[in-house]
Design brief:
419 residues, mainly alpha, Serine Threonine Protein Phosphatase 5, Tetratricopeptide repeat, 25 helices, 0% strand
Length: 419
């Protein structure tokens, strides 16, 4: 290495930045072209991209056939947010140049950044054609397809990288494969790679992916362990809470499930899924008041949350709180939410509240849209019978039985009606 450059580097390393840069500038004035290139590299490493580019502008003009200069210049242009200029210079590199493959990889990145995925893919395939067994190119193709969501396409490329046993800047290929397999529903294959890959370090998304895959396989203890790790790393990782709550529930740890739901809501008070989940777990375990509280809150946050409205309406109907049921349905409908199920709840409430004509009208309007719901047909039949429409009421009950032959109580009821 040039003595002047050594002196400059020593000054920079000891904190004498200004003296070191002055020394580099002095050396550059009389340096040969190879030394100038070294100075440009030092400037680049120091983040002084403009100074590096000044040198490279000169060298590229002097050596128009040196592809290595072009790739370095392209990297400088990328750092200067001059992507179009970087593309232009990379396209000038000849196919027979030893940096051609590197240029294709850089072009692929640039085109993908510009949303030109088809062109980016072509550049990567060009590189693969040139060096079919090069792990860096195989990795590039794997990354490209993974980033696009073409998980199945990415898998064989990552597997070739693993087979090559080449390290790629510490990239954990096992975890890439685990992600790809999990995203395509191949959870058994994914879990194997997660078990191996997770040993390589603590990256929060990888722990979540491992937990999610274990969750899908019904391995709830592993899922809980991984999800808890995610929360230890960052408790604001809100998407983990519904899965962890359900995993605890599946393990019969109801208290822990409800506690994690509460914690999740503290982190993300507008996470509707957590309220619905908290309600479901509470109601399934006899905590009716707590369940209703969750449902009231989710409906207040978003009256369009169909599951929340449905669960609350069902709870009110089961508790024979028909005034409140009617009030709830009117509330969500006034806000523009509409669904046949809501009208069914309203029809049920009006029937019990002696608003028979309005109830019957609603039931008749719903007859087509809910014609395959045996519970609806059963209730409609009872309303018709109560109104004196015996024949039509019996027809509805018969249809309910045809759809669900487990309704033996209706068969007995019809038998007594016909006696």
């Amino acid at each position: 290495m040039n003595i002047g450059i050594k002196k400059a580097l020593k000054q920079i390393e000891t904190g004498k930045m200004e003296e070191g840069l002055a020394q580099l500038k002095k050396v550059n004035k009389t340096a040969d072209h190879e030394t100038k290139y070294s100075i440009a590299e030092i400037y680049y490493e120091l983040g002084l991209v403009d100074l590096a580019k000044e040198i490279m502008d000169e060298l590229v003009l002097l050596y128009p056939d040196e592809g290595e200069l072009y790739t370095f210049m392209a990297e400088l242009l990328i750092d200067l947010d001059q992507e179009d200029e970087a593309i232009e210079i990379l396209l000038e590199i000849n196919e027979n140049d030893h940096v051609y493959v590197q240029a294709q990889l850089l072009l692929a990145d640039l085109y993908q950044l510009q949303g030109l995925d088809e062109v980016a893919e072509l550049k990567l395939l060009n590189a693969e054609k040139k060096v079919p067994n090069e792990p860096v190119v195989q990795f590039g193709l794997g990354e490209f397809y993974l980033s696009r969501g073409d998980y199945l396409k990415s898998i064989p490329y990552y597997k070739r990288v693993i087979a090559s046993e080449e390290e790629l800047d510490g990239t954990n290929i096992e975890l890439r494969l685990a992600e790809a397999y999990s995203a395509t529903g191949y959870f058994e294959e994914a879990i194997t790679y997660y078990r191996e890959g997770i040993k390589g370090g603590k990256i929060i998304d990888d722990h979540f992916g491992y937990g999610y895959t274990a969750f899908q396989l019904g391995d709830y203890p592993t899922a809980i362990q991984q999800f808890e790790t995610v929360i230890d790393m960052d408790e604001s990782y809100s998407s983990v809470y519904p899965y962890l709550g359900e995993a605890y529930e599946e393990e019969g740890q109801i208290h822990e499930a409800l506690q994690i739901i509460k914690k999740g809501i503290e982190i993300d008070e507008f996470n509707e899924a957590l309220y619905v989940q908290g309600a479901r777990i509470s109601l399934n375990n006899g905590f009716v008041s707590e369940g209703e509280d969750y449902l009231r809150k989710v409906v207040a946050i978003n009256p369009a949350n169909f599951e929340g409205v449905k669960m609350l309406a069902s709870l009110l109907k089961k508790g024979e709180r028909y005034d409140e049921l009617q009030e709830l349905i009117y509330y969500v409908k006034e806000l523009g939410e509409d669904d046949p199920l809501f009208d069914w709840f309203l029809a049920s409430a009006k029937w019990v509240l002696d608003e028979y004509e309005e109830s019957l009208k609603l039931f008749e309007q719903l007859a087509n849209s809910l014609s395959h719901d045996s519970d609806f047909l059963e209730e409609f039949g009872q309303v018709l019978l109560e109104g004196g429409y015996q024949q039509k009421g019996k027809e509805m009950l018969k249809k309910a039985i045809d759809i669900d032959d487990s309704k033996t109580h209706l068969q007995e009821f019809l038998f007594h009606l016909n006696e």
